[in-house]
Amino acid sequence: MNRRALVSLLILGVALLLLPLFANSYLLSVATLILFFAFAGQAWNVMMGFCGQLSLGHSLYVGVGAYVAAGLFVHLGIGPWAGVWLAVALCVALGCTIGFLAFRFGISGVYFALLTIAFAEFTRIGFDHLQWTGGPGGLFLKVAQRDTIDIANFRGPPAMYYYAILALAAGALALCSWLLKSRAGFYWQAIRENEEAAQALGINTFRWKMLAVAISSAMTAVAGVFYAFYYNNLFPEQIFHISRSIEIILGPIIGGVGTLFGPILGAVVLTVLADGITELLAAVGVEVPGIKQVFYGIVLLMVIMFLPNGIWPTLARKLGLVHAEGGK
Amino acid sequence: MTWDLVANVLIAGLLTGMVYGLMALGLSVIFGVVRVVNFAHGEMMTIAMYAAVILFVGFRLDPFLAVLPVAAAFFVFGYWLQKGLINPFITRPEHSQFMLLVAVAIIMVNVLLMVFGPDARNLQVDYQLESFEIGRLLVDKARVYAAGVALLTAGALFGFFRFTLTGKAIRACADNHLGALVVGLNVKHLYALTFGIGSACVAVAGCMMVLLVDVTPNLGPAYTLLAFITVIVGGMGSMPGAIVGGILIGMSEALAGLLISPSAKSMFSFGLLILVLLLRPQGLLGKKP
Lengths: 328, 289
Fold this sequence. Notes:
By secondary structure, chain A is an all-alpha fold.
C-alpha cells in the first residue's frame, strides 16, 4: 500500500465517522447494511480468500451467533456483551468440528463446500423444531426506545448500531491486514496456492486450516450477534438459508477474493446496486415480483464474466493505489 | 402405525426416489465430465415442471408425451449454455464457476416468479387418483409410471455411454482431458453435448415430478440441494450411484415424514449426506478420487 492509498483510506474513515451527522435515516440504514456485509464478507474471506477453503454455509455461524445471543437475552436477560462470548465459543466449536471432520477425512474443494451447506441446512431444520427459540415462528427481541442509549444491553438509536458495525468492520480490516502479513497469512496463502507443496515444506496444513476456520467462524458469530440486536427478529428460514450464505460471499467475490478491500467494495457495489434497482423500478412504476432479482442476477453474470478477479484489483491499479504488480 | 402403512410409504419413497435419481443423474453426468457443479440444476428442474404444466393446460398434452419436446428443448438449451456461457469458465477456480451458475439460478428462479407468480401450479390427469392393489399394498399409478420412465431414461443413458462412439468419446474426455485433446476429440463440442444430455435428464425428471408434487418457483433451490445430496451419497460421477442415491434419499425422506414430521424430512437427507461425506467421501458407489 502506498501513500496515496493511505490518504484515501484516512479520508474514507473520517467521512464514515461523520456520516451520521448529515445522513438521513434511510442513508444510515443502507450504510449499516453495507458495513454489515463488509464485515461478514471479510470473515468469509479469511477462510476462502486467504486459505482457499470454500465455505458455502456461513449462514450457519451468523444464525447460531444470532440465536445464542438473542436467546440468552430474551429468556435469561443476559446482555449481548456476555452473550457474544458464548456465541463466539459455540461457533468456533462448530466450525472446528466441521473443519476437523472435513480435513481429517481429506475432504476438500467442492465436497467441502457441500459439507458446509449440509451443516447449515441441517441446523436450519433443527432450529425449525427447537421450541426454546420459537421454532419456525421466529424469535423476537423487544424493540427498545429509539432515542435512549443503553450500552449494557446494546439497545439504542440507529446511529449507535452504525458506529458499532463501523468499529467491527474497521477492526476486521485491521485484523485481516495484520493476519495477511503474519506467519499464519503466509502459510495460508501457501496452502491456498498448492496444499501439497505447502505440506512438503513442512507446514502443518491441518492446523493452519483449522485456525482459518476458527477465526472466520468467530468473526461471523459476532456479525450474527449484531444482526440479532439490529433487526430484532430471527427466523430459521431466513437466517440459516443458503441464500444468506450466498449474500455473504457475493461481496468478496465481486470485490475480489483474497484482497483486503475486496469484501468492502463488493458490499458497497451489491447493496447500492440492489437498492438502486429497487428505486429505479419504483420510479418507472414497474411492480412485478422478481424483476429486481433478475436485474441483480444479470449484473452478477456480467461482473463474473468480464472481471474474473473481482472489481478491486482492476480498480486499485487504475487509481494507482497499489504498485503495478501486486493487486492484493 | 401398522407395517402396511410403513411398507406403503417406503414403496412410495422408493418410486419417488427413482425420479430424484434421474434428476441427480443429470448433475452427476455433467460433473463427471465437465467437472463443473451445476448450481442451477434444481432451477432447471422447476422450469421443466412449468413447461409440462403449460403443455398440459395449453395443449392437453399428457406429461408422458410432453417429455419428448421438453427434453429436446432442454438439450438444445443445455448445449448452448455450456458452449456460450460455461466453457470460458472451465479453467477458472471453483468459486468463480459457482458464482456464474448461482447468477444463472437467480435469474431462472425470478423469471419464473415474474411469469407465473408465487402460487403453486399443478396438473390433473385421471390416472393420478388410481392405484395398483398388490395384496394389501396400494401403489399410485402415476408414481409407478413416473418411476418407470425415470428408469427407462437412465437405462438409455447407460446404453449411450457404453455402446455408442459419441458416448465413449465423452467418457474419454472425462477420464483424461489432455489425452482426449491429443487424439483429436472436439472436447468443447463433447462438453456441450454432455451438458445438453444432463439437461435433458432434468427435463424428463421434471415432467415426471410434476405428476407427484405441485410446483412453485421456490422449489428450485431445494431441488438443487436435493440433487447435490443424492449425487454425493451415491458417488459423484457414478451413474448407478445417482439412482441408488436417489432411491435412498427418497425412502429416507418418506420414512422421516412418517416417523417425525413432514417438515423434518430433509433433515434426514442432510444427516445422511454428512455421514456419507465423513465415512465415505467418494460416495457409496464412487471411485476413490
